[in-house]
Specification:
There is one protein chain. This protein is of the alpha+beta class and about 325 residues long. The chain has 2 domains: about 150 residues, Aminopeptidase, CATH 3.40.630.30; about 120 residues, Gcn5-related N-acetyltransferase (GNAT) (Aminopeptidase, 3-Layer(aba) Sandwich), CATH 3.40.630.30. Helix content is about 30%, strand content about 30%. The chain has 9 helices and 12 strands. The chain has a 12-stranded mixed beta sheet with strand order 1-2-3-4-5-12-6-11-10-9-8-7.
């Protein structure tokens, strides 16, 4: 089966071919993503072939059904898109890249329509009463991309920042309130506690859902960049109060997930986690450190990161398209 569209469904230039992805396209697609991110001025959000291969192994994702590429007649990959089922077929996530030299060739439109056709198959599997939608992001500087999303009836709904810091000296040592302790992460002993803490810490975040332990294992332990020695965990006795899951990404230090459980907020634990993480990267000779954050984060994370010396490096717009009206996705708990 292929997800190729007819010429009537897309204005794709006749010199280009839209087809489903094969595993042997992996390296070429990773290179395309790097080229697009480089043109946008931020390669830290690109992926390695190993990262991309791992993402294609996501439960329920089949690159031959859920991903598409556009190539020239001589086989150069100039466009790529994928559609991921985030939650029960009603919350879908799209991702799209177009080579900067092929912007005016109808590739955006072709890929967005391929995503939507596949999304229609998810609609039939989603709970009957729930609203079904696709969300997809593009760099704020990508004017053509924003135009094409709008032309295909996508609406901007959220903004996200990539923030970064270039350390000029060793950061301050973290200061913890009395009774709290930073301890080394031991997977065999702490994995489930960190998983549960992650779900609690992000329960009020926009678009976030509790994940199963199997999903947590896939996202964090099975990831090619998994480095447990860089994880930071703050304990209050036997309880995880906060954590920072860190690794290297595109040769910079990356704070992938930082969270403080609601009951332990407003005690400067987030700042302590940042300072500890900065210090561990600096000790390893890494001075450039980054992270991604919801610009409207409800817990004040953006202010925390700015207080720690981080600045906005890139901004991304999250677009959304409704495929079927219905009851909105369950609101996150505020408890």
């Amino acid at each position: 089966m292929t997800n190729q569209l007819s010429s009537k469904e897309t204005p794709l230039d006749a010199s280009l071919i839209l087809r489903s992805v094969r595993w042997d396209n992996l390296n070429a697609i990773a290179q395309l993503i790097y080229t697009v991110c480089e043109a946008d001025g931020d390669i830290s959000v690109a992926v390695t072939p190993e990262d991309l291969a791992n993402s294609w192994k996501h439960a329920g994702f089949n690159p031959e059904l859920d991903a598409w590429l556009v190539e020239t007649r001589d086989g150069q990959v100039v466009g790529y898109a994928e559609l991921l089922d985030v939650k029960d077929h009603y919350h879908l996530s799209g991702d799209l890249y177009v080579h900067p030299k092929y912007i005016e060739h109808g590739i955006h439109t072709a890929l967005l329509r391929a995503i939507e056709i596949r999304g229609g198959e998810h609609v039939r599997q989603a709970p009957a009463d729930l609203r079904v939608f696709i969300r997809a992001a593009t760099d704020h500087k990508d004017e053509p991309g924003k135009t094409y999303f709008t032309q295909e009836s996508y609406t901007p709904v959220r903004y996200f920042w990539r923030m970064g810091i270039e350390l000029e000296a060793a950061p301050p040592a973290p200061i913890l309130p009395a009774g709290f302790e930073l301890r080394p992460f031991v997977k065999e002993q702490h994995a489930e506690a960190i998983w549960q803490a992650r779900n609690k810490a992000f329960q009020s975040h926009w678009g976030s859902h509790p994940i199963s332990f199997a999903e947590f294992t896939y996202y964090y332990f099975d990831a090619p960049e998994y480095e447990p020695d860089l994880w930071a965990v703050i304990w209050d006795g036997s309880e995880v109060a906060g954590f920072s899951i860190n690794h290297y990404r595109m040769e910079i230090g990356w704070i992938r997930t930082l969270g403080v459980r609601p009951a332990w907020r407003k005690q400067s634990l987030g700042l302590a986690l940042l300072q500890y993480s900065f210090g561990e990267f600096y000790r390893r000779g890494t001075k450039n450190i980054g992270l991604g954050v919801d610009a409207s984060n409800p817990t004040g994370a953006t202010r925390l990161y700015q207080k720690a010396g981080m600045q906005v490096v890139s901004e991304f717009i999250q677009f959304e398209k409704e495929l079927r009206p219905g009851i909105a996705e369950p609101e996150p708990s505020q408890s």
